[in-house]
Amino acid sequence: MSLPSEELVTIQEFYQMREETDRLLEYIDGVVFMSPSPSTIHQRITSRLHARLFNHLENGDCEIFSAPFDVKLSNEDISGEKIVIPDLSVICDKSRLDTQQYNGAPTLIIEIISPSNQAHDLITKLNLYMQYGVKEYWIVNPLLNTIMIYALNEKAEYEQIDNVRDKGIVTSKVLSNFKVDAEKIFQE
User: Fold this and answer.
1) Tell me, what DSSP letter sits at residue 148?
2) How far apart are the two ends of the chain, measured CA to CA in Å?
3) What is the C-alpha radius of gyration for the chain, rounded to an integer number of angstroms?
4) Which among 94, 157, 164, 92 has a CA at the least distance from the CA of 109?
5) DSSP designation for 135
6) For residue 45, what are the CA distances in angstroms to 53, 115, 171?
């Protein structure tokens, strides 16, 4: 998942690397991570969730963005540079959008797992998003047909609020009345 390197990469070197490749690259405190090309099922799931979120959020205060779109995580209490490319990001504080990226912590992030990036999404990003205050994090696993939802509790820690496999309805805690039928998301 990460690019082999003996030394940490500066943010300037990271941006130079991006100029020289078509690959999706993320940057976490000097380490560059390469995202795999999305599979057919990954694209289907992303499209279905994007469409549902777009329709749900239309005419509201929040907006949905899909990859490739940079999120530069920022929090005044945390140092280091972190630039991630979530599969889907729900942005409710539009004042932090610029012409190239979002600067802050999205309200909700959805990642669709690929075989080669499971640990990155299940461990690294889960902890990173919690640390930066992403209110809700969905992990969609087409390998197991599961949707796991984590939400920040009163201690600013993630707790799992939903987990379905194959069938069932998952409900967002932060987006009022937003529900997803897992069976429809995973259909071929």
Assistant:
1) E
2) 27
3) 16
4) 92
5) S
6) 12, 15, 17
pLDDT at 6: 55
**pTM (whole model) above 0.85:** yes
Place of tokens 């009163």: 154
DSSP E strand stretches across the chain: 24-28, 31-35, 63-66, 70-72, 82-84, 88-91, 101-103, 108-112, 136-141, 146-152, 158-165, 169-171, 179-181
**Structure-token pair, residue 77:** 């209490």
pLDDT value of residue 133: 96
Q: And the tokens for 46? A: 């992303």
pLDDT along the chain (188 residues), means of 10: 66 94 92 88 96 96 96 88 96 95 97 84 92 97 95 96 93 96 93
Token readout for 168 is 């069932």
Which amino acid is residue 103, in one-letter code?
A: N
Could you tell me the domains of the chain? 38-69+86-186 (3.90.1570.10)
Phi, psi of 151 (to 5 degrees): -135, 150
HEC letters along 53-99: HHHHHCCCCCEEEECCCEEECCCCCCCCCEEECCCEEEECCHHHECC
Provide the token pair at 34.
Answer: 């390469």
Distance CA 182, CA 76 (A): 37
